[in-house]
Design goal:
Largest sheet: 7 strands, mixed
Radius of gyration: 22 Å
Helix content: 25-40%
Strand content: 15-25%
Oligomer: single chain
Number of helices: 18
C-alpha cells in the first residue's frame, strides 16, 4: 500500500497541493491541485482573503479523496510575517492585512521610541524589514488598539489554517522568528520586549518546533473532505521548508531560495546578532532542528513577475529569459531599494531608477528583463562577498532551489557574478522540504542528511561552472 504525504504550499501568487510518495528509494512528487493567490485591495488596504484560501485548501483535500490518494499526514507552509488576531470566540479581529500594505510606514520610529535598532537586533538577530510582524503590530496598536486588547491569540497564517483543520492552536517556530519578536538564545518569545512595546502578552501562543503533531481533522472537516488525516507542523515559513531541500550535507554551502523573494545565505548552529551582521542587513531566521538560516532577503523574481504582467505580449518566463540573454544593456538597479516593493508600475520603477542614476534607460522587453536579471546577479555577487567577510569562510558552490532554479539565464549570471559553481534544483524545494519533515516524523528517513541525499538523487539538478556554462 503506497503511503502519501501532502504538502500544501501557499505562496504570494499561488498555492498548490503536492503529494509525495517513495518508489525504489526515490521521492516522487505529484501536483494534485493548484489555486491562485494575491492580496486584494480592500478600500485602499492590501488584504489576504483567508476565507477563500481555506476553501481552496479543502478543495485540494477533496481532490486527494477523488484520486483515492489519501495522505497519512499533511502540513501547510506559507510566506512569513503575516498573522491573524483571534478574539475569545476565535473570530478574526479586523482585516488580515498583507505585508505589502503601507500601514507600517513610520511604525519603525514608533518601535525605536521604546528600543533602539541596535538593541533590537542584538535581542532578535532579525533584519529590519518594515513589514515584520513587530511593525505590523505597532500599526494595529496605533490605529486599532482595541484589537490588541480583545485578542486572545495570535496565529501566523499557516498556524491559523492548521487550527481551522484541527481545532488546535500551535505557533510554529520558523515562521514566528520572521516577526522579530523571538529570542534566538531561548528560541521562545522575548516577553520582555513584547511588554516593552505594549503588546498583549497573553495572545502569544507557546512556540512549537517543526515535526510537532498538531492533531487530526475535526469531525466537520472529516465529513466535508471525506477522510481523516494527521496534521504535522512543517517549517511553516516557506523558506524554512525550501532550505531543508538543499541537496547537500556540506555545512559550508551557500543557498539561494529563489522565488518571489531571493533568500540567500547559509545554515548556522548559532545566531550572529553582532553589529557587523546588522550593518550588512543579514537575518537569523529559525530553521529546522534549532538551526539558523543566516541570510539576506533580496527582492527576487517579484520584479520579473511584476513586469511580465505589464508587457503587452503574453510571454512565458522562458521567453523573457531568452530575450534578456540577447541584450547588451549595462544598467544595474538596486534590487533592495524600497521603490521596487510595491510600485504601481514595475517597468516605470526600473526606468526611473536608471534615469535617476544616469544609466541607459531600458525600453524593450528584453532590455527591461536584462536589467532586472543582471541586477539580481550583481546583488548575489555582493552578498557572497559579505557572507565570506562575516564568516571568514570561502564557498565554492551556490545551491539554487525553488522556482528560480528554472531560470537558466539567471543561473548563468549567478555563476558569473559570484565566480562560483551553481547547482540549480530542485524547483519544488518548498513542498519537498515540507514533506521531508512529515517523512522524518513518520520514520521514512532516519535523519535530515539521509533525506537530503535522497533529494539529490530523486530530482533533476543542473550544474554550471564559474563562467556560467552548464556541465
Amino acid at each position: 500500500m503506497e503511503k502519501y504525504y501532502l504538502a500544501v504550499d501557499i505562496g504570494a501568487s499561488s498555492g498548490r497541493h503536492m503529494l509525495a510518495s517513495m518508489k525504489d528509494g526515490n521521492m516522487q512528487l505529484e501536483e494534485v491541485y493548484r489555486f491562485a493567490n494575491g492580496m486584494d485591495n480592500k478600500d485602499g488596504t492590501l488584504c489576504w482573503d483567508v476565507g477563500r484560501l481555506f476553501q481552496e485548501i479543502k478543495n485540494g483535500l477533496k481532490k486527494c479523496r477523488e484520486l483515492g490518494k489519501i495522505p497519512v499526514s499533511m502540513a501547510i507552509d506559507t510566506w512569513g510575517v503575516d498573522y491573524v488576531l483571534l478574539d475569545k470566540d476565535d473570530q478574526i479581529l479586523g482585516d488580515t492585512v498583507g505585508y505589502r500594505d503601507s500601514r507600517t510606514n513610520g511604525m519603525d520610529e514608533k518601535v525605536y521610541e521604546k528600543i533602539s535598532p541596535k538593541a533590537l537586533y542584538a535581542r532578535t538577530g532579525i533584519q529590519k524589514q518594515i513589514f515584520n510582524t513587530i511593525y505590523q503590530l505597532m500599526a494595529v496598536k496605533e490605529t486599532h488598539p482595541e484589537y490588541l486588547e480583545q485578542a486572545e491569540s495570535m496565529l501566523m497564517i499557516p498556524d491559523y489554517f492548521h487550527f481551522l483543520l484541527t481545532g488546535v492552536k500551535k505557533m510554529e517556530y520558523t515562521n514566528a522568528t520572521t516577526g522579530q519578536l523571538i529570542d534566538p538564545k531561548t528560541n521562545d518569545w522575548d516577553y520582555e520586549l513584547i511588554e516593552m512595546l505594549g503588546y498583549n502578552r497573553k495572545m502569544f501562543q507557546p512556540v512549537s518546533m517543526p515535526g510537532t503533531v498538531v492533531g487530526n481533522f475535526t469531525k466537520e472537516i472529516q465529513e466535508e473532505v471525506g477522510f481523516d488525516c494527521e496534521v504535522v507542523l512543517p517549517a511553516t515559513h516557506d523558506t524554512g521548508s525550501a532550505v531543508l531541500a538543499v541537496p547537500t550535507n556540506d555545512d559550508n554551502a551557500i543557498y539561494i531560495s529563489s522565488g518571489t523573494w531571493s533568500l540567500m545565505g547559509i545554515e548556522r548552529k548559532e545566531a550572529d546578532c553582532s553589529e557587523e551582521s546588522m550593518k550588512a542587513n543579514f537575518t537569523n531566521e529559525g530553521g529546522y532542528g534549532h538551526r539558523f538560516r543566516y541570510l539576506k532577503n533580496i527582492m527576487g523574481l517579484w520584479m520579473i513577475q511584476s513586469v511580465k504582467k505589464e508587457f503587452e505580449e503574453d510571454l512565458s518566463f522562458a521567453e523573457i529569459c531568452d530575450r534578456a540573454s540577447k541584450e547588451t544593456i549595462t544598467s544595474i538597479v538596486d534590487c533592495n531599494d524600497d521603490c521596487f516593493l510595491a510600485p504601481e508600475s514595475m517597468i516605470q520603477a526600473v526606468q526611473d531608477f536608471c534615469k535617476k542614476t544616469g544609466q541607459p534607460v531600458p525600453k524593450t522587453v528584453g532590455e527591461i528583463a536584462a536589467v532586472i536579471y543582471n541586477s539580481l546577479g550583481k546583488c548575489y555577487g555582493d552578498t557572497v562577498k559579505e557572507i565570506e567577510a562575516i564568516t571568514g569562510n570561502t564557498y565554492d558552490t551556490i545551491y539554487v532551489v525553488g522556482g528560480g532554479a528554472n531560470a537558466g539565464y539567471l543561473n548563468e549570471l549567478t555563476a558569473k557574478y559570484t565566480q562560483k559553481k551553481v547547482s540549480a534544483g530542485p524547483t519544488e524545494a518548498t513542498a519537498i522540504g515540507n514533506m521531508i519533515v512529515q517523512m522524518l516524523h513518520d520514520g521514512v528517513f532516519a535523519s535530515l542528511p539521509e533525506a537530503r541525499v535522497c533529494v539529490g538523487r530523486s530530482f533533476d539538478i543542473k550544474n554550471y561552472d564559474e563562467k556560467g556554462k552548464q556541465f
